[in-house]
Amino acid sequence: MSRPDEPQALGARTLGLHGCHICGLVSELQGVPLEKARCPRCHAHLHRHANLGLQRTWAYLFAAGVLYVPANVLPVMSTASVWGGRESHTILGGILELWHSGSWELALIVFVASIAVPLMKMIALSLLAASSQRGAAWARPERTRLYRMVEAVGHWSMLDVLVVVLLVAMVRFGALASVQPESGLLAFGTVVVLTMLASESFDPRLIWNRRPDDE
Amino acid sequence: MPHASFPGRAGPHPHGGAGILPRPDLVVCEECDALYRRPLLRSSERSRCRRCGALLGRGHALALPGILALTLAALAVFVIANLEPVVQINLRGVHNEASLPGALRHTWQSGERLIAVMAGMAAFVFPLLVILLRLYVVLPLVLWARTPPGWIVAMRTLRFSSRWSMVEVLMLSALVSIVRIASMAHAVPGVGLFGFGALALLLAALDSAGLHRLWDCADELRAR
Q1: What is the pLDDT of residues A85-140, one digit of tens each?
Q2: What is the count of structural domains for chain B?
């Protein structure tokens, strides 16, 4: 059932019309099976709705969830200096350092980008994938908006990877002081890439799929 | 907002039999599959999907020569931003500076090579690909009103690269690294940081001009 206040629109696919997700061209299939149809303009497959799509999203999400633990537990960089000795820093540790140095605004930004966004992305995409799989009809416009937000903020989590890369180059004072990247950073960067792949592999049109008993 | 209306089916295929008929008179919402007639958009007008609010298209705010000019500007800024240091640092009289290529090289040498590759892709390779591919597809359109060889591959790679290019993230991370290091040494932003700031703005402007418009331009040229 769709809500009474939900704006009505014609689903393109029910009319045999298919919008290409790469170049945007609409094609009308005339007797060509969808599985074989390719966009006449950019040659992309028009069929993006195979179940494989959701399986891929789940696989990326699962891998990201597993790596999320080492990404946050293992150190992402270590510093060595003659006055401070050798220290390891985790993602959360870096945020606390920013906080104690008085830059609470930056600490907040890094917290959102590095901890909150990857976690919220994994939760949001799991919700979207699970609800689409069951053909849920609730809050379709809102769920589409949620997907749009996930897509928009996704790449900002790469922030911490680039911070460490810059610090490695900045702090090169031989025996006096140096910064080394650590393996936690690789896990962290991989989580970011995997969540981006997960959201790319999810087709938001699945949110609007109707079951036969709908309407 | 221009009014979108529901279209009907077209007649049978002009040549009869099975086939795939392009329907440039229609738009389909990429996010919820709602179908509309393509509205005529004036400059700075945009149309949104009635059902889910996604952006369906924008008016021609930027003409093709404008896109070409912005792309050339982006290329120049990219070169400058990479030659100049992003941050400069002073530790008890010892001076040091980090440019993006330098930072990638030092990370590579530190042994965490995959991190260097990951950062290099996001901050260097994909932004460069975005600029070069855009130049490759727009230049022939503007100068000779035709598409270059390998148009489809170039356009699809361009779409992919835009997604993974993270210049604006690099800019913010330079600011964070300056604050992170402040307790140990004095650091100041370099010319490169401002370069990447300008590059982020240029790329955002190009991004908003959209790739669908380039596809449509090429179609119009072929139809002539």
Answers
A1: 888 889 998 899 888 888 888 899 889 988 999 999 999 999 999 998 888 888 88
A2: 2
Whether the CB-CB separation of B86 and A45 falls below 8 Å is answered with no
Domain range enclosing A19: 1-48
Q: Which two tokens stand for residue A76?
A: 């992402």
For B159, which of A22, A155, A177 is closest by C-beta distance?
A22
Instruction: Give the residue among B68, B206, B63, B220 at the shortest CA–CA distance from B140.
Output: B68
Q: Do A30 and B54 touch (CB under 8 A)?
A: no
For residues A55 and A110, membership in a common domain is answered with yes
Q: Which of A98, A141, A208 sits opposite B53 (nearest CB)?
A: A141
**A127-to-A57, A58, A100, A199 alpha-carbon distances in Å:** 12, 11, 36, 12
CA distance A159 to chain B (A): 5
Q: Please report, for chain A, how many H helices and E strands are present, in that order.
A: 7, 5
Q: Nearest Cα to B213, choosing from A113, A25, A76, A139?
A: A25
Per-residue DSSP letter, A15: G
Q: What is the pTM of this model?
A: 0.86
Which whole-number Å values give the CA distances from B57 to A87, A207, B41, B114, in the listed order?
52, 21, 8, 38
Give A24-54 pLDDT, tens digit per residue. Answer: 889 888 878 887 888 888 888 887 655 567 8
**Position A213 in a domain:** no
Tokens of B105: 């090289």
Residue B102: pLDDT band (50, 70, 90) is: very high
Are A64 and A118 in contact by the 8 Å Cβ rule? The answer is yes
Number of folded domains that form chain A: 2
Do A101 and A40 belong together in one domain?
A: no
